């Protein structure tokens, strides 16, 4: 990636600085189950850059090993990533675990079990946030989440007004776009981030969420994140915030 490709972000952040404002950013990573080399890379680069991290953990398949590892990281929070990340949609539908394909009480019971399991493993490191697998959830389930113990819902895209639950969404996916997975051009990612920031300039709109998937990152994704943190971590026009602070 050439240095010129970062110029649009620098210019946008300078606009925020000159206005005496800070663009709020937050980071969510999905699909964690156990300690891996990829997770170590994510933890290292976020720790070195003082970037708060929220890791969406799949309750059905995780255990003490990941909890023990994450207990050593003060900058990492944990959220509930569905129950088992299983697809219950038909072959002609987009993948969903939390859709209308099963009875609502069955789905909600699994989510409650997942929250309880991660509370036991993580204690105060857990934030009562639901991250639906594939960022999809049936609208009829959302009003019932608070009764299961959830305070926040996190999907992808601009937060819908009038939601029955507090939303803390992601907006720029480092890995996925339009059916393509991995090796996204860095210039495209910078352009998406700048567009999100421009849409928020002059307002107190939602923070911009960056979405990652550490298990499938290659060299390109790690390079982009490392450069993004370097460009933003000390810039007076930007601030990285934790999911807990943003949802309180």
From TrEMBL:
CDD domains (alphabetical): CE4_u4
GO biological process: one example: carbohydrate metabolic process
InterPro entries: CE4_u4-like, Glyco_hydro/deAcase_b/a-brl
Protein name per UniProt: Polysaccharide deacetylase
Organism field: Rhizobium mesoamericanum STM3625
């Amino acid at each position: 990636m050439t240095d010129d490709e970062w110029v649009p972000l620098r210019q946008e952040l300078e606009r925020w600085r000159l206005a005496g404002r800070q663009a709020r950013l937050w980071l969510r990573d999905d699909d964690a189950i156990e300690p891996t080399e990829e997770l170590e890379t994510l933890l290292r680069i976020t720790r070195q850059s003082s970037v708060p991290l929220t890791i969406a953990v799949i309750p059905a398949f995780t255990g003490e090993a990941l909890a023990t590892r994450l207990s050593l990281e003060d900058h990492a929070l944990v959220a509930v990533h569905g129950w088992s990340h299983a697809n219950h949609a038909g072959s002609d539908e987009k993948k969903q675990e939390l859709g209308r394909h099963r009875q609502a009480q069955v789905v909600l019971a699994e989510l409650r079990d997942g929250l309880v399991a991660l509370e036991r493993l993580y204690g105060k490191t857990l934030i009562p946030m639901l991250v639906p697998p594939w960022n999809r959830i049936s609208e009829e389930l959302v009003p019932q989440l608070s009764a299961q113990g959830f305070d926040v819902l996190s999907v992808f895209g601009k937060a819908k007004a009038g939601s029955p639950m507090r939303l803390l969404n992601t907006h720029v996916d480092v890995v996925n776009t339009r059916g393509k997975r991995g090796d996204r051009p860095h210039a495209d990612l910078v352009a998406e981030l700048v567009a999100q920031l421009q849409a928020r300039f002059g307002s107190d709109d939602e923070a911009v969420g960056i979405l990652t998937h550490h298990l499938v990152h290659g060299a390109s994704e790690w390079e982009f994140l490392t450069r993004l943190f370097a460009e933003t971590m000390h810039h007076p026009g930007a601030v990285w915030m934790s999911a807990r602070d943003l949802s309180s």
